[in-house]
Every structure is written in structure tokens, then in C-alpha cells.
Design goal:
The complex is a heterodimer of chains A (266) and B (364). Chain A has eight helices and no strands. Chain A is mainly alpha-helical and 266 residues long. Chain A is globular. Chain B is of the alpha/beta class. Chain B has two domains: 193 residues, Glutamyl-tRNA reductase, N-terminal domain (Beta Polymerase, domain 2, 2-Layer Sandwich); 146 residues, NAD(P)-binding Rossmann-like Domain (Rossmann fold), CATH 3.40.50.720. The chains are: A mainly alpha (266), B alpha/beta (364).
């Protein structure tokens, strides 16, 4: 039977195709411009299917589909692909898709296979503020996901340069300076969005009046973590390898927090 | 009708012979026209680079045309001795295969180099403008261009740099991205450091500073690179602004040490620093490469990468040959299916060429 989840599964098929194309590009070793375009197209088709899933689910629950952990994870992955599609061509970051597709695939497959997906009944009250604050915070997570991706690319490329052992990905990957720049921009963008989301949260919880404590503590810690990372560059000349490691660790912590908070204090 | 190629390259002939047979770029068109007449070819093109001179032609009879082409080379260059021993000759399939291999850089001195494709294109355009090419060579050369493009994008034959200077440039670009904002410092003016600095300059490196114990040499190299010569004692004061340092001094001990670099990296706010140590004995302490944001390569590291890239290209030859065979087959099929039409066409054209008028026509 075709449900909205079917579209999410189909999207995963296209993300998987993108992963296979990357492996082929690494093996053939040519300039691979056509493979890169094909890769982008696969991600774009995956994104459209992913959007169809969110739309159908949004129709079903009658609001922004962030009513359970499963939907939240799917939304974060969607935001990550959105940022990939925007950043890849405009900054000419080659090979970004190679690292984005596996992360997105991992998040979605974990959500699809491990999480109970109980469609929530429509709530009595519905606040635009609540939806706005949640949606923008999730978009911020998408930017952080891409910061994780560029961080991983940085670490891979930097370690090749340090060890003086160049693999077939060396010429395909961007320069470490470019990766560092994009990384910090994504962190700033994510942080600004998260801040707006948190302010929106302040307003919305005032209106609706429910206040789940662990969730708030966790959200504030994520905000402080990323704030320190963004300010760190100016204050302690934090950059390069350290920022790459920190942006990967922060995103991993954030995801773990999502699962932990939602599963322990549903 | 036959396709022929007659020529010599870096393997078949020493440079003394190649330079005598080379055609000046400006005279290619004229020479190609002269060749058409001299060797009675239907179509012709001349490829002349510093590593090869080759005549491509379409003839009624390959053996006769090749003989005539040999005479043309001899006469055109006013040679007094025979160069036959240095020349190779391929017909039909072998000729097509040869051009495809040449265009793809498989026959080049540096395997997979890409300059050759531009040179083949120039040879073709010169011949085309001189009106020396026709339906067969037009198609053959276009085929060679598209084959070269295809092979470049789908194999690793052009991948990775194969000389110390260009390997250094690749590394610099993977550290800094565009080099326009980079400051390069050359410490010591050896041949290799000059070549490396030139390679960086040609890819857009911003400021170049040169220092040497002999100031005249520093100034000479700086002038070549449109850079600035600084005195040898000045280099430590200029060093904090530098992104890429190429060092090749004759100093017996390292001049860049870990102790000197640590405070320096602080003032740079951990911006990356690329150290290229070409000197033997080495100028930069090996442990410097372990510092954060410092990337240190010595001459052995660079040569090792150049060698690995070259052997990676060699491993791609078989894959290239498979693709070349496909392109060759497609062209050969077209040629065969159009063979009689082409023969007809050229017979008619020859008939159409006005024969020299007899001295006396029917007097009226």
C-alpha cells in the first residue's frame, strides 16, 4: 500500500543512487563532470520525493510535520539536502554530495527502521508561533548537518595533506581553506536561525503555556555550544581542524540529544 | 584511397633532427598547401610541435604518396642528408589509431599531457584555413577531438601532476584554493625553486618575494617573476606575511625550526602555512610539519607524489586503449560505408581541375 512513508523510502533510493555514483567517480578517476551533474540530479529527485512525504504528512497531521521524533528526523534530513542543493552549485563545492548523501541516508534509514511512527491526532490549540519556532530550529539543524559534512570533508582532506599521502579523492575535494570558510558560514547561519527559533519558542510557550523542562535545557545547551563555536573564531582564532572536529561533534551531540530527550521524556 | 601519416617524434628522432624538420606556426598553412600539390594528396594536415612533426594525408595510393611526402619534407627543409631512418609511417587503421593516441596524449613524452590537444587543433585549423582538408580529414580530426575529450573525462590519464613544480602547485591549491591572495617567498635561488615559483605564478599567485645570499641573483629571479627582491637578513621579518615558502639554501643546518615557527603561527592566527623544502641538506626541521596548520613537503615527498601520479597514469593506458578502439571502429565504419562515394567525389574533382591547356588549339 502506498503511504506517505513510501515517498520517503523512494527518496532514500535516490540518495543511495547518489552514493553509488560517488563510488564510481572515485574509481574511474576522470574529471567526472557528467557524473557530478548526475549526482546532483539524483539528490534533487530525492529531495522532491522527500518534500512530497513532508507535504502529505503535513496534510495528515494538519500542521508542520514535527509531531514525533520520526518526523523531526526526516525534516532535519530534508533541511540538510536543501542546504546541499543551495550551497553545492553557488559555492562550487565539488564532492559535497559525496559526503552529504550518506549522512542523509543514515539519518532517514535510522528513523524509518528504528522509530515508532505514530501519527498524532490534531491538537486542540494550534499556534503559528509554535510551528514557526520549531520549523526554523529544524532548518538550523539542516545547516548544522551541512557543517558536519564540510567538517568531515575538511578532516579527510587535511589529513591527506598532513600525512603526504594523496588518495584518489584529493583532487576532487575542495581546498581546506574553502571548506573552513563554508563551515564557519554554515555555523553562523545555523546559529542565527537557532537564535530566532529560540526567541520564537520563548514567545510561543508563553502563549501555549506548556514547558517541558529537559527539552528546554537541551535546546539551550545546543544553542550555547554553537554560540561558543561561532564566537571562538574571533576570540581564540579557533579554525581549521578544531572547528571541523567541533562542528562534527556538536551535530552528533545534537542528534543524540534529540533521540535521548524524545525517547526518555516523550 | 588510403589515409597515411608520416612523421617523427621524441622516440624516433633526437632533437637535432626534430628541430630541422619543424614547421614554423605562421607558415603551416602555406606548407600544407605546398604539400598537397607536391605529394598529390586529396587532403592534408601538418602537425608540428617540439616533440613531433607529422604529415596526415588522404591519397589514392599510400606508398606513392608517402614517397612523395618524404621528398616534400626533404625539399621543403632543404636537407642535404636522408632522414628516412627517423621517420615512421602508418596507413589507414593504424593512421587513425595514431592520431587518436596523439590527441589523447598517449604518445606524448609526458604521458597524458593535455597541451598536445591544442597543438593538434591548431594544426587542423591551419590546414582547414589553407583549404587543405576535406570531408575525410575534417571528420577524422573532429573525431580525434571528441575522443580526447571523452577519454579525459572518463579515465584518469590526465590526472595528477607529474613534475615537482606542478605537484607543489596542486598542493598549494588544495590548501588555499585560489592563489591570488597568497604571498610566496623564495629563499635561495636554485633552478628548482625558480621553476616551482614560476608554476605558482602561472596559476595566479599574488605577491612573490625573493631573497638570496647573493642579492643580484635574488633580483634577477624577482624580475623574472615580477616579484620583489628582499635582502637575506630580512626574510625572518617578512616571514609572518608569507603563505607559501620555497626554500633551497645551501645552509648546512635547518634555518626554519619548530621554536621559530610556534610564535609565528600565533601571529598568523593559525592561517595555513605551506613549506616547500627543496634544499639538500634540508632547510626546514621535519618536526615543523607536525605543527597545527603547517604543511611541510620536502623534495622527496614531492618527487614521490609525482612518481605515484605517473604510475597511476600508466595504469590507465589500457582503459584508454579500449575507448580509442571504440572511437576508431566508429570512424572506420563511416569511412568504409562512404568509401565508394568518396572515391567518386575525388575522381570527379580531379577531372574537374582544368588541365593545362595545350599550346595550340584549333586555330580559327
Amino acid at each position: 500500500m502506498i503511504t506517505d512513508r513510501t515517498f520517503l523510502w523512494l527518496a532514500q533510493a535516490f540518495y543511495a543512487v547518489s552514493c553509488v555514483l560517488t563510488l564510481r567517480r572515485l574509481r574511474t578517476g576522470g574529471s567526472g563532470a557528467s557524473l557530478q551533474r548526475l549526482n546532483y540530479a539524483a539528490m534533487a529527485v530525492g529531495f522532491v520525493l522527500h518534500t512530497v512525504f513532508l507535504y502529505l504528512r503535513g496534510q495528515a497531521v494538519g500542521r508542520c510535520p514535527l509531531t514525533n521524533l520520526f518526523e523531526t528526523q526526516a525534516f532535519i534530513a530534508w533541511a540538510a539536502v536543501l542546504f546541499f542543493l543551495l550551497i553545492g552549485p553557488s559555492y562550487r563545492v565539488s564532492f559535497l554530495g559525496a559526503f552529504t548523501a550518506p549522512l542523509v541516508l543514515l539519518i532517514c534509514l535510522a528513523a524509518l527502521t528504528l522509530l515508532a511512527d505514530v501519527v498524532q491526532a490534531q491538537p486542540a490549540t494550534r499556534s503559528a508561533w509554535v510551528e514557526f519556532h520549531a520549523a526554523i530550529a529544524i532548518l538550523a539543524s539542516g545547516a548544522f548537518a551541512l557543517a558536519f559534512v564540510t567538517g568531515a570533508m575538511y578532516l579527510h582532506q587535511e589529513s591527506q595533506l598532513k600525512r603526504r599521502r594523496l588518495s584518489s579523492s584529493f583532487l576532487l575535494l575542495p581546498s581546506i581553506e574553502q571548506l573552513d570558510t563554508i563551515n564557519i558560514r554554515l555555523l553562523i547561519l545555523g546559529f542565527v536561525m537557532l537564535t530566532i527559533g529560540m526567541l520564537g519558542g520563548l514567545v510561543s510557550y508563553h502563549i501555549v503555556g506548556h514547558w517541558t523542562k529537559p527539552k528546554i535545557i537541551w535546546a539551550v545547551s545546543v544553542w550555547i555550544l554553537y554560540g561558543a563555536l561561532v564566537l571562538g573564531r574571533g576570540i581564540w582564532a579557533l579554525r581549521g581542524r578544531k572547528v571541523a572536529v567541533a562542528s562534527m561533534a556538536s551535530f552528533a551531540l545534537m542528534l543524540a540529544g534529540f533521540w535521548g530527550v524524545s525517547l526518555i521524556w516523550p | 584511397m588510403n589515409l597515411i601519416v608520416l612523421g617523427l617524434n621524441h622516440r624516433s628522432a633526437p632533437v637535432e633532427v626534430r628541430e630541422r624538420l619543424a614547421f614554423a606556426t605562421g607558415q603551416l598553412g602555406e606548407a600544407t598547401r605546398a604539400l598537397l600539390g607536391a605529394a598529390s594528396l586529396h587532403e592534408a594536415a601538418i602537425l608540428s610541435t617540439c616533440n613531433r612533426v607529422e604529415i596526415y594525408g588522404l591519397a589514392n595510393n599510400a606508398t606513392e604518396a608517402a614517397q612523395a611526402a618524404r621528398r616534400f619534407l626533404h625539399d621543403h627543409h632543404k636537407l642535404t642528408d636522408s632522414v628516412d631512418a627517423y621517420l615512421y609511417e602508418h596507413h589507414d587503421y593504424k593512421c587513425i589509431q595514431h592520431l587518436l593516441e596523439v590527441a589523447c596524449g598517449l604518445d606524448s613524452m609526458v604521458l597524458g599531457e593535455t597541451e598536445i590537444l591544442g597543438q593538434v587543433k591548431n594544426a587542423y585549423y591551419a590546414a582547414q584555413q589553407a583549404g587543405a582538408t576535406g570531408v575525410v580529414l575534417n571528420r577524422l580530426f573532429q573525431k580525434a577531438f571528441s575522443a580526447a575529450k571523452h577519454i579525459r573525462s572518463s579515465t584518469a590519464i590526465t590526472r595528477g601532476s607529474t613534475s615537482v613544480g606542478t605537484v607543489a602547485v596542486d598542493l598549494a591549491e588544495k590548501i588555499f584554493g585560489k592563489l591570488a591572495k597568497c604571498t610566496v617567498m623564495v629563499i635561495g635561488t636554485g633552478e628548482m625553486s625558480g621553476a616551482t615559483a614560476r608554476a605558482l605564478k602561472s596559476r595566479g599567485a599574488g605577491t612573490i618575494l625573493v631573497c638570496s645570499r647573493t642579492h643580484e641573483r635574488a633580483e634577477a629571479l624577482a624580475a623574472q617573476l615580477q616579484g620583489r627582491a628582499i635582502s637575506y637578513d630580512q626574510w625572518p621579518t617578512e616571514f609572518p606575511t608569507v603563505d607559501i615558502a620555497i626554500s633551497s639554501t645551501a645552509a648546512p643546518h635547518p634555518i626554519v625550526t619548530r621554536e621559530k615557527l610556534i610564535p609565528l603561527m600565533k601571529t598568523r592566527r593559525q592561517r595555513p602555512l605551506f613549506l616547500i623544502d627543496i634544499a639538500v641538506p634540508r632547510d626546514v626541521e621535519r618536526v615543523c610539519g607536525e605543527l597545527e596548520s603547517v604543511y611541510l613537503y620536502d623534495i622527496d615527498d614531492l618527487q614521490q607524489i609525482a612518481r605515484e601520479n605517473m604510475s597511476a597514469r600508466e595504469r590507465e593506458i589500457a582503459a584508454c586503449q579500449v575507448l580509442i578502439a571504440q572511437h576508431l571502429q566508429r570512424f572506420a565504419t563511416w569511412l568504409e560505408s562512404n568509401h565508394s562515394a568518396l572515391e567518386e567525389r575525388y575522381r570527379n574533382r580531379m577531372a574537374a581541375t582544368p588541365l593545362p591547356k595545350p599550346a595550340h588549339t584549333h586555330a580559327s
